[in-house]
Amino acid sequence: MKRFSLTLLAMTLVLVVAAQIRGNNIVVTVEPDHQDWTYQTGQTARFTVEVRRSGTLLDNVSIDYAAGPEMYQTEKKSLTLKDGTLTLKGTMKEPGFYRVDVTAHVNGKDYKGVCAAAFSPEQLKPSTVMPKDFEQFWQKAIEEARYTSLEPTKRLLPERCTKDVNVYEVSFNNAKWGSRTYGILCVPVAPAGSREGEVKYPALLRVPGAGVRPYQGDVWTASQGVITLEIGIHGVPVTMERSFYTNLNKGALSGYWEYGMDDRDKSYYKHVIQGCIRAVDYIEQYTPWNKQQLGVTGSSQGGFLSLVTAGLDKRVTCYAPVHAALCDHTNSLNGKACGWPHYFYWNKGKGMEKHIETSRYYDGVNFARLITDKQKGWFSFGYNDDVVPPTSAWATYNIVTGPKEMSLYQMTAHFWYQEQWDEWEAWLLKELGAKN
Q: What pLDDT score does 112 carry?
């Protein structure tokens, strides 16, 4: 009996550990009547709204909804759905996205559903203009940063190494002496009998999304025969305790994307961009890179930095921005959706002439204009993203003249699905000529 009780207790503990909270029993869906969520301007999109509990429609449910062009919805109503369903219609005369947001109120809790339908998105054009000295400004900024030698440091992280990959925390000078970029370098272990550095590999630079955090490094991609360098942008080591970054995020670096945006030479992003190019310098000078395939990738802010690095550095052969932020800042001055961080959305740019001019030097669209036909791009984003609106993502994609691919995951907001991640990684490995 004692043995049976112990066995039962062990089984119970296993079940407790295995059981997890997953999703909600109450689900709000907003579904368009075109499978690809895409319409031509002048067509009418029909949206079916459903509120379900345990998979069945919920009677007499109270909802609020907002509908109209994304970020500028004009139709807002509250009503009760007797049978848990509702049909809405929307259209657009100009290219863009018509978005429907629905919030259901059930037992004192809110449940949300959203759908943004595209209208002739291939015709979207960015509003931002390229300053006449855009290229010269950035060429000079890179030259200024290169006045200072990299003077790199490299520290083995044995607890992160595997039989296939050596992992290091590295750092190097950025815009000037003492202003450093830190990152995690992962290098494939050379085959038996080979000397260190003798075997050459393709390389991938991973650039970060917004925020302040530690980094683990891309060990998996390195295990496929690719050098990976994942960098931070804030000039601090990337292996500290989480609380260190939380304090910075809430303190000195809170809202850093706003810093210096009234002066192109004082913008926080100037040294960030210089650091991306210096990271490529580091890869070239201090890793066993084959000097043939070099990729750059990231999401959100990292998507922007991917466009930046590819646009400014022709050593980059492929780039993969996912829901790229900081694109088409000035579109909100025209009453249309703009990219994160929505600099001029709230005040319509009033009294911000210097900020508007500066923003053009830090707009992903203008860097995308510099990408050549020798650099391959893979773009991916979702239509339900309210951080990086698909209006800005599509307009940025449209401006690229070089070889490019788009993989849409319409339902995604500011995240990605597993299938999206797998496709993203597979594309990079293919373009980099990795062993898998």
A: 97
- The pair phi, psi for residue 50, each rounded to 5°, is -135, 140
User: Residue type for 10, please?
Assistant: A
Q: What is the pLDDT of residue 359?
A: 97
Per residue in 106-122, pLDDT tens? Answer: 999 999 999 999 999 99
> Considering 101, 281, 328, 385, which one is annotated as catalytic?
385
Percent of the chain whose predicted confidence (pLDDT) is above 90? 90
| 83 catalytic residue (yes or no) | no
Cα separations in angstroms, 47 against 23, 39, 86, 293: 23, 13, 8, 45
Active site residue 300: yes
What average pLDDT does the structure give for the chain? 94
> For 266-282, what is the mean pLDDT?
98
The closest alpha carbon to 315, from 204, 149, 434, belongs to 204
Instruction: Judge contact between 397 and 379, C-beta under 8 A.
Output: yes
Query: Taken in order 347, 352, 353, 359, is the CA torsion positive or negative?
Result: negative
- Residues 211, 225: Cα–Cα separation, whole Å: 29
Query: How many angstroms separate the CA atoms of 287 and 160, rounded?
Result: 18
The one-letter code for the residue type at 89 is K
**393 secondary structure, DSSP code:** H
For the question of residue 414 being annotated catalytic, the response is yes
User: Under 8 Å CB-to-CB from 94, ≥6 apart: which residues?
Assistant: 41, 119
- Token pair for 187: 């290098």
Residue 87 neighbours by CB under 8 Å, 6+ apart: 46, 47, 48, 49
Q: Tell how strand 404-408 and strand 318-322 pair up.
A: unpaired
Catalytic option among 267, 299, 300, 380: 300
Q: Which residue spans within 17-134 are E strands per DSSP?
A: 26-32, 38-39, 44-53, 56-57, 61-69, 75-81, 85-91, 96-106, 109-119
Instruction: Name beta bridge partners: 106.
Output: 109
**Which residues, in sequence order, are bridge partners of residue 49?**
30, 86
Q: Quick: pLDDT tens for 152-206.
A: 999 999 999 999 999 999 999 999 998 999 999 999 998 877 877 789 999 999 9
